[in-house]
């Protein structure tokens, strides 16, 4: 049955998919498997395009096809459900596995983490807000962010106080308190 646009109804597509799955999984019909793969290739293409900016499209498409084939082979008719709902995590997982295993990482992103000695220096200079308690990690982190780095500059995002000066009547510049 077709709708006004000439396309098959969604129910007909689901019925055709179920018939092809039954023919392949129960009867071993390889042509049914090939037809299922052809039906779901647009799904693989959409996910390959989604991750295309980080890797070559052809490689991602191939990895997605492997995920689709694995999904068709492992689909359980007894559990029911749609093949697309089962295939999407398999396709995306295979593409992500490809990206993880076969792409070159160009180093870490973000600020370098502080080394151990800098962290241990934070405790002696730090005063607890309440006496008698050990400092919490977030308190230490907030005190570290206001310290200056070894280059004499404040770390990005750190709050620093400006020293103000004023000129006395005699012309001398003195710091304000």
Features:
6 helices, 2 strands, Rna Polymerase Sigma Factor, Chain: A, 177 residues, mainly alpha, elongated, two-stranded antiparallel sheet
Task: Put the structure in a nutshell.
The protein has a domain at 29-102: Rna Polymerase Sigma Factor, Chain: A, CATH 1.10.1740.10. Helices cover 52% and strands 3% of the residues.
Explain what the structure shows.
This protein is mostly helical and 177 residues long. It has a domain of 74 residues: Rna Polymerase Sigma Factor, Chain: A (Orthogonal Bundle). 52% of the residues lie in helices and 3% in strands. The protein contains 6 helices and 2 strands; from the N terminus they run ααααααββ. A two-stranded antiparallel sheet has the order 1-2. β1 and β2 form a beta hairpin. α2 crosses α4 and α3 crosses α4. It starts with 9 loop residues before the first helix and ends with a strand.
Helix content: 40-55%
Strand-residue proportion: under 5%
What is the helix tally?
6
Biggest sheet: strands side by side, in what order?
A: 1-2
Q: Under the CATH scheme, which class of the domain at 29-102?
A: Mainly Alpha
User: Would you give the CATH topology of the domain at 29-102?
Assistant: Rna Polymerase Sigma Factor, Chain: A
- CATH homologous superfamily classification of the domain at 29-102: RNA polymerase sigma factor, region 2, helix turn helix motif
**Quaternary state, please?**
single chain
Summing up helix and strand content along with how strands pair, one would put the structural category as mainly alpha
Topology of helices and strands:
Elements: H1 10-27, H2 30-50, H3 57-74, H4 83-102, H5 116-120, H6 137-146, E1 165-167, E2 173-175
Helix pairs in contact: 1-2, 2-3, 2-4, 3-4
